[in-house]
Design goal:
Strand 8, helix 2 and strand 9 form a beta-alpha-beta unit. It contains eight helices and 14 strands. It binds zinc ion. Zinc ion (ZN) binds next to loops.
Length: 253
């Protein structure tokens, strides 16, 4: 087959994934055999779950599109809805169930705090993460872009920031979760859904001071953890306020 050239332009925050050798765009890839567009995009460092739309010479295509001749390719991120109005979106935003890798403890805790269903184990290996993702139809959250490139992954996101609160804001934006926040409904320890409990039901688990000071409780039916509006509660409330304030902050500008 006669060699041919693919010229790629990546928009929005997809630039985050391009290595230093691709600092200037368009990126040119020389090919000498039929190659799927998905493989060419991932060879530039961009995981496919981050890609929402692809144009080949101005025409929208899917990941299975095969490249056989010189073309210009434009690639758009999932979080950049204003950049492109096309019917052919490759990602969905309506996902509120996640599995997070072992490095994303703060993000997991924040998302649970806001009521979202996040499977997490600090000990889970890549295989287990992918199993949970597929079996329970969850989106994969990981900063391991190789893992995100695995062919089994349909939905996922790589937090750009290394800071938990910022990662939380990124995920809320990417999956359009702002209207779905239900704080203090989920166990921070195990992800269980909390149930109201009477003082009588939880009294054996309480310290004397807590017994005296609080009357409203919630309990996790899965791990028995008891929650009440103590000082830790106020700290969590502040975390929620901080995240919400930053979300609205950015939307306003
Ligand atoms: Zn629990």
């Amino acid at each position: 087959m006669k060699p041919f050239t693919i010229r790629l332009n990546f928009f929005g925050d997809l630039v985050f994934f391009l290595g230093s050798r691709f600092r200037s765009q368009p990126i040119e890839r020389r090919l000498s055999e039929r190659t799927s567009i998905k493989d060419v995009i991932e060879s530039c460092g961009v995981p496919h779950p981050e890609v929402d739309a692809i144009l080949v010479n101005g025409q929208a295509v899917g990941f299975d599109h095969t490249l056989v001749s010189n073309v210009d390719v434009t690639v758009f991120p999932a979080s950049n809805q204003d950049t492109l109005r096309t019917e052919k979106h490759l990602q969905v935003t309506e996902i509120s169930r996640f599995v997070a890798d072992g490095h994303l403890g703060t993000l997991t805790r924040n998302l649970r705090l806001l009521g979202f269903d996040v499977a997490f184990s600090s000990r889970a290996d890549d295989r287990e993460l992918l199993d949970i993702m597929a079996r329970e139809n969850r989106a994969l959250l990981t900063r391991d872009r190789r893992l995100l490139m695995h062919s089994i992954v349909q939905h996922g996101y790589c937090p750009r920031s290394q800071i938990g609160d910022q990662q939380t804001i990124e995920v809320l934006r990417r999956f359009n979760l702002l209207g779905l926040i239900t704080p203090f409904t989920r166990c921070l320890r195990c992800n269980g859904l909390l149930k109201d409990a009477t003082k009588l039901e939880v009294i054996v688990d309480l310290e004397p001071l807590t017994k005296m000071s609080y009357d409203q409780f919630r309990r996790c039916p899965d791990c028995s953890q008891v929650y009440w509006a103590g000082s830790h509660f106020q700290k969590l409330e502040k975390t929620i306020e901080r995240i919400q304030a930053r979300l609205f902050d950015k939307r306003g500008d």
